[in-house]
Amino acid sequence: MKIARVSLAFLLLILATNQVIAYTEVLFSPDDKPTSKLLEYIKSSKKRIYAAVYMLTDKIIAEALIDAQINRNVDVQVVIDKITYESIFGKGKMLQDHGMTIFIYDPPKTKSYNKAFNSGPIMHHKFALFDNIVWTGSFNWTVAANRSNQENVIITDDQIAQTRYAQCFERLKSLCLKKKNEYRSSKEPSALEIFIHNWKNFIRKRGFV
What we know:
It is a single chain. By secondary structure, the protein is an alpha+beta fold. The protein has 8 helices and 8 strands. Helix content is about 40%, strand content about 20%. A hairpin with a 2-residue loop joins strand 5 (about 125-130) and strand 6. Helix 2 runs parallel beside helix 3 (about 60-70).
């Protein structure tokens, strides 16, 4: 009886201090090919997919997100940086054209904003919430990130992580535009945008995106 009471007390202590061991998985690209696991989570999600991803250029990932919303009625919301919306390789417009809710990060200009290069704060996150799973790390949703880049991914169902990332996602949405007619690209491309455009053309011809 004494042993049972001690065991119960120990269990309650673990629960009270939130030290229940969470599921955790770590992936590295290119060795582990994280896109395969990412697609598994997209295709198995039943309720929500909330993603904040700086660069989303992989068409296969974009198609899986569209399928989750259209054919499985999953609540899919995606926060992207404006580079994913403006880039010729970005899939922001593709998602939007299929009726998905996307949020384009466009915070108020700060003192760090450089008008000559049209630069300022960027949305550099690469995380997602798949039902009760958190996906995070340095991994952008691009072919190059999966095929050749040195990247990392951490996957966990830790409840504190879920809460913090959900809060961050809602805060990011408050700094975004979500309607297509609210966002306008610059009429004249900046020197930086021209450089990025030419660089993207260069790497596209070599099959990296």
